[in-house]
């Protein structure tokens, strides 16, 4: 296993940062920690990226480690794989997730298979970063939520942070991983809020869910930008007497089934919230797992609140497409009333 040399002299201070700044800070720490870490992508060096996630890194680490590339996602992915198999730890940025499809052949056909193909002789320690998701009034191809494509591919890790602190910790762990990681950054919440991050270089565990709120009546499962609406809905439901446990999936592949199942075993109800299209989404996998492993504890069917099976609409209809706090609350109340509804129906049938 490759080890990253710990020669970092980064100032370990606590700062209040946005999710975007957390990404930048993690990249800075990783690059100062090891000269194996290089960064590449379209407009990421001179301009610091479309969203400025790589701002100032070129000035600090030079053009050999922070590299602008041509507008060619296939080339970016292929070059990144080559770097990774030869001892580097490249972090490549795809400007928007909607542009990543040209790189699929390289990522699915080569990066994901490298360890298996070489029987462990070669690993592929790369990170592909991409802003993803809707909600910023963007044009077509700039608001994709197709994380399920990558979650279906054996050999790829898929990580989606939902807070500044998790963006920092999970990105550091992704860079240190010896397997390829697709790191999807929910751009709708890039700058929506700030939280304290201690720049200590500590990564957060991959392949794990995070319990953001304890509860006893229902489990709300979500990830990425939808965590914002999910947490707000949990607060509203608390006021209505429904105690919700909120699970941030964070790593959708490999999926931490056990944390989700343990939560549902406790609460007896489960709702999955994501903005991606409904059919074959990650929510369907979670619902199936809960139905298989927590069935004796379920008091109601698993609910899913998702985007629609259509292309993300332009900004006038964007808010209609994305799951809202109100919709989460309404379906949660309906789910909590399922048991009482069944009992009433049974009484009605018995009286006939």
List the helices and strands and how they pair.
Layout (H helix, E strand, L loop, with lengths): L13 E4 L1 H15 L3 E5 L15 H5 L4 E3 L4 H13 L3 E5 L10 H6 L4 H4 L9 E6 L14 H5 L5 E3 L4 H13 L4 E6 L8 E4 L11 E4 L4 E5 L3 H14 L4 E5 L2 E3 L3 H11 L2 E4 L8 H12 L9 E3 L9 H7 L3 H12 L1 H14 L1
Account of the protein in words:
With 352 residues, the protein is an alpha/beta fold. The protein has two domains: 14-198, Rossmann fold (3-Layer(aba) Sandwich), CATH 3.40.50.970; 210-341, Rossmann fold. Helices cover 37% and strands 17% of the residues. It has 13 helices and 14 strands. The protein has helices at residues 19-33, 57-61, 73-85, 104-109, 114-117, 147-151, 164-176, 226-239, 257-267, 282-293, 315-321, 325-336, 338-351, and strands at residues 14-17, 37-41, 66-68, 89-93, 127-132, 157-159, 181-186, 195-198, 210-213, 218-222, 244-248, 251-253, 270-273, 303-305. The strands form three sheets. Strands 3-2-4-5-7-6-12 form a seven-stranded mixed β-sheet, sandwiched between helices. Strands 9-11-10-13-14 form a five-stranded mixed β-sheet, with helices on both faces. A two-stranded antiparallel ribbon has the order 1-8. Strand 6, helix 7 and strand 7 form a beta-alpha-beta unit. Helix 1 (19-33) packs parallel to helix 7 and helix 9 packs across helix 10. The radius of gyration is 21 Å and the shape is globular. Mean pLDDT is 93; it is low at 1-9.
């Amino acid at each position: 296993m490759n080890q990253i040399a710990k020669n970092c002299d980064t100032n370990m201070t606590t700062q209040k940062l946005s999710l975007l700044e957390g990404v930048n800070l993690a990249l800075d720490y990783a690059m100062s920690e090891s000269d194996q870490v290089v960064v590449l992508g379209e407009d990421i060096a001179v301009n610091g990226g479309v969203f400025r996630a790589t701002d100032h890194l070129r000035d600090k680490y030079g053009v050999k480690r922070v590299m602008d590339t041509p507008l060619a996602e296939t080339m970016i992915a292929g070059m990144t794989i080559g770097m990774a198999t030869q001892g580097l730890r490249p972090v490549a940025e795809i400007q928007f997730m909607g542009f990543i499809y040209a790189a699929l052949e390289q990522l699915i056909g080569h990066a994901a298979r490298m360890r298996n193909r070489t029987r462990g002789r070669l690993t592929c320690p790369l990170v592909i970063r991409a802003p993803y998701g809707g909600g910023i009034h963007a044009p077509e191809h700039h608001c994709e939520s197709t994380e399920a494509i990558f979650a279906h591919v054996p050999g790829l890790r898929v990580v989606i942070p939902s807070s500044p602190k998790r963006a920092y910790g999970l990105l550091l762990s992704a860079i240190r991983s010896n397997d390829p990681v697709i790191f999807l950054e929910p751009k709708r919440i890039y700058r929506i809020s700030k939280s304290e991050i201690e720049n200590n270089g500590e990564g957060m565990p991959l392949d794990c869910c995070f319990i953001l709120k304890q509860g006893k009546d229902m489990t709300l499962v979500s990830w990425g930008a939808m965590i914002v609406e999910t947490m707000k809905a949990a607060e509203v439901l608390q006021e209505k007497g429904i105690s919700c446990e909120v699970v941030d999936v964070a790593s959708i592949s490999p999926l931490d089934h056990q944390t989700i199942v343990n939560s549902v075993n406790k609460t007896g109800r489960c709702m999955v919230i994501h903005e991606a299209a409904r059919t074959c989404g990650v929510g369907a996998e979670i619902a199936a797992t809960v139905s298989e492993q927590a069935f004796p504890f379920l008091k109601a069917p698993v609910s899913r609140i998702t985007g629609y099976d259509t292309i993300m609409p332009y900004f006038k209809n964007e808010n209609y497409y994305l799951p809202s706090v109100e919709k989460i609350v309404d379906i949660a109340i309906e789910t909590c009333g399922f048991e009482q509804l069944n009992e009433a129906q049974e009484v009605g049938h018995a009286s006939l």
